[in-house]
Write a structure and sequence with these properties.
Layout lengths: L2 E7 L5 H11 L2 E4 H10 L5 H9 L4 E2 L2 E2 L1 H9 L2 H26 L5 E5 L14 E6 L2 H12 L3 H9 L4 H5 L4 E4 L4 H16 L3
Parallel strand pairs: 1-5, 1-6, 2-5, 6-7
Antiparallel strand pairs: 3-4
The chain binds dephospho coenzyme A and adenosine-5'-triphosphate (ATP).
The site of adenosine-5'-triphosphate (ATP) has 16 residues, from α1, α6 and α9.
Length: 199
């Protein structure tokens, strides 16, 4: 029997690191950030044109979308983030659902790595929800380092997301990533062995 795991948690909490570990054990991983990037890079269903007509030419360098500028715009303004989500989420939902079906042709375990899993109602696409826990300070430090963001840019990205406490209410499994990487790896190894390995 196959299984779909929705791996969520807030920005820079460690989802990609954990999905990378699950991939090493044998899971197929679908990264929602990559799906979103593909939608805009390839103008899937006219998304890029919709973004230009909603947000204007100021976030483009010629024909090229400046993702950093769009991020600075929407993450500071909930109404604008909603406008972007209204364009992106329906398109991404179709792609994510389709991709999960395709991945199941070759893998029994599929992990959907998505910060917006609950916000996008993708909990309906998976069997279990795993939530990664990190403190806001850890998110902030890791985000500034990873994405070379200024403190205020990083804070606005963190504050734009559904609070962790709300996500935890949906959790079948909680992964504590507040310690060092080895402590997290031990939890992931145990979860693989007890919940996924024999699928
Ligand atoms: C606003 C955009 C252009 C900023 O691009 P940028 O390259 O700076 O960031 P990137 O896409 O790598 O996202 C970084 C992180 O931001 C957070 N994030 C991204 N989009 C959202 C969103 N709509 N709501 C809440 N958090 C988000 C996630 O934690 C994500 O991992 C981009 O994030 C985007 O197109 N977002 C809408 C599509 C989407 O929801 N993607 C995320 C799926 S999890
Ligand atoms: N326990 C940890 N200790 C130290 N650094 C960590 C730990 N966990 C993750 N990191 C680092 O923090 C950064 C953020 O982790 P990661 O990219 O996995 O987060 P994410 O949840 O996938 O973020 P996003 O929502 O933006 O996709 C990475 O540079 C990662 O190497």
């Amino acid at each position: 029997m196959s299984i779909d795991v929705g791996l969520t948690g807030n920005i820079a909490s460690g989802k990609s690191m954990i999905s990378g570990m699950l991939r090493e054990y044998g899971a197929a991983v679908l990264d929602a950030d990559s799906v979103g990037k593909n939608v805009l890079a390839n103008n899937v269903e006219g998304a890029l044109e919709q973004v230009r007509s909603s947000f204007g030419d100021g976030i483009f360098d010629g024909k090229q979308l400046n993702r950093h500028l769009l991020g600075n715009l929407v993450f500071g303004h909930p109404d604008l983030l909603k406008e972007l989500n209204d364009i992106m989420v329906p398109i991404m939902t179709r792609l994510v659902a389709n991709e999960i079906t395709i991945l199941h042709r070759t893998s029994t375990v599929v992990v959907l790595d998505a910060a917006i899993l609950i916000e996008a109602s993708w909990q309906n696409l998976v069997d279990e929800i795993w939530v990664v826990k990190a403190s806001k300070n850890e998110q902030l430090e890791r985000l500034m380092t990873r994405d070379h963001l200024a403190r205020d840019e990083a804070i606005s990205r963190i504050e734009a997301q559904m609070p962790l406490a709300q996500k935890l209410a949906y959790a079948d499994v909680i992964i504590d990533n507040t310690m060092d990487v080895e402590q997290t790896r031990k939890q992931v190894e145990m979860l693989w062995k007890t919940r996924l390995q024999n699928r």
